[in-house]
Write a structure and sequence with these properties.
Blueprint: E1 3-8, E2 11-14, H1 17-27, E3 32-35, E4 48-53, H2 55-63, E5 67-71, H3 72-75, H4 81-134, E6 181-182, H5 185-190, H6 200-214, E7 218-221, E8 229-232, E9 243-248, H7 257-269, E10 273-280, E11 289-295
Parallel strand pairs: 1-5, 9-10
Antiparallel strand pairs: 1-2, 2-4, 3-4, 5-6, 7-8, 8-9, 10-11
Helix pairs in contact: 2-6
Length: 301
């Protein structure tokens, strides 16, 4: 089943957690989490959905027919007042049902605790009574307990009640083929929805990404390490990256000596090897050729 990529402002997003997990586990596509998480005080370390994908990831997924594009501005039509009122009523009903379930669960838990407590108290009273009767003392009967009051709606049972409503259930979200739904790069390009890659350098980066990805590697953004992609031997949650890549768009692209020194020292300082990817772009209908060379700082003498 093809996974939808929701395009807005020339960026592709993943909103469904199952789709994000499928891409990560099955297809080695991680994306970048950009959404905030409810209940997290600081939003600079742990982020959530949506995932935003690199343009090279989008091109690869479309070419392999793993995903399709949904152009969000055209897939969502303005809802009518009746639809808005119906959606609000359904949401309030759902929240009320979850509140009732939460109160019932809390009541059941409280009754179970009270029953267990009273059972333990009765056993202790019996043991105490038996001990005093043996000593010839009078033991008065234990006082009767009153029923606990029913918790009111002002108690904090509703503070953590979630709402389970998805965007795909809205009647005003209906993508249509040819207008907001695209299964190939040419169709999306003709509609002006997705134009990447449009230059030889962008094509070369897509070829580099495809070459390293087909070797079973995971890829991430490498701009903070002085390159284009970070290359991981496994899931980035478990492994450090081994390479950072730089793409040379043509076989005749010149390399300055200072660039070699900078790439070598930068890779060594970050405990990585710098991967130089030389791309020979094919003509229409051909296959791009990519040669990769690792650059690592070594001792002299």
């Amino acid at each position: 089943m093809s996974i939808p990529l929701y395009v807005s402002n020339s960026k592709a997003y993943i909103w469904d957690p199952q789709h994000a997990a499928t891409l990560r586990v099955t297809h080695h596509i991680c994306g970048l989490a950009t959404g905030t998480l409810p209940g997290v005080a600081q939003q600079n370390l742990f982020l959530g959905l949506p995932l935003v994908l690199m343009p090279e990831e989008v091109v690869l997924l479309l070419e392999n027919e793993i995903c399709h594009l949904v152009y969000t501005p055209r897939a969502i039509r303005p809802p009518t007042p009746h639809e808005i009122a119906q959606h609000t009523a359904d949401r309030l009903t759902s929240i009320h049902e979850m509140q009732v379930a939460a109160v019932a669960a809390a009541e059941e838990k409280k009754r179970a605790f009270q029953s267990k407590r009273e059972g333990g108290k009765g056993k202790r009273e019996e043991r105490r009574k038996e001990g005093k009767e043996e000593a010839g003392l009078f033991v008065p009967p234990p006082p009767t307990t009153t029923a606990t009051a029913t918790p009111t709606s002002s108690q904090a049972y509703f503070s953590s009640v979630p709402s389970h409503l998805t965007t795909s259930t809205h009647p005003w979200f209906r993508p249509t083929e040819g207008e907001s739904l695209f299964h190939s790069l040419p169709s999306a390009r003709e509609a002006g929805v997705w134009t990447y890659p449009s230059t030889p350098l962008e094509r070369a980066r897509c070829a580099t990404f495809r070459k390293v990805w087909t070797e079973g590697m995971f890829m991430g953004q490498g701009v903070k390490f002085g390159g284009e992609f970070l290359v991981y031997p496994g899931d980035p949650l478990r492994y450090h990256s081994h390479f950072v890549t730089t793409t040379l768009p043509t076989p005749t692209t010149p390399i300055r000596p200072l660039e070699l020194v900078a790439w070598g020292r930068l890779g060594t300082a970050t405990k990585k090897a710098h991967l130089l990817c030389c791309v020979d772009l094919a003509t229409e209908g051909g296959e791009d050729k990519v040669e990769c060379y690792s650059l690592e700082w070594a001792n002299f003498g």
